[in-house]
Description:
Layout lengths: L2 H14 L9 H5 L4 H5 L9 H19 L23 H24 L16 H29 L1
Amino acid sequence: MAxxxxxxxxxxxxxxxxxxxxxxxxxxxxxxxxxxxxxxxPSANRHNIWEIAVHCAYWKYTVRRRLxxxxxxxxxxxGSNWFRRPVTLNEEAWKxxxxxxxxCHRSMREAIAALPQAKLYSTTLNSxxxxxxxxxGIAYHDVYHAGQIQxxxxxxxxxT
Length: 160
């Protein structure tokens, strides 16, 4: 594997699931949350942790799709970007959406690992951004939302 790809995968792994110096990664910020905790909203028109998790899954799917030049429409949920959650407030539904996030991450990671080095600096499908910029962006996206989740958890603790 080329050094650049190896570095990109390390960046993705740290943002999603590996311990780092900067604080919680996305998966760590979700660890141990119940469906009820994930469904809590700070106010009526704000996203909850559950919705953020599914939003992250969607964008991992989107990055993979763009890198592989795949057509839209294969994400398992209807819609795009933000998905109202919970549909059903139970632990199994929450765990299913966490599995979706994990599957989307693994699938995206595999696509990046297989991407030829020559394509790293090409633009992605329907974008002005290069593939490498999109890969960096999805890692930043994970860290950004991990921070949001940590804040929502703190607000939830303080509200009870």
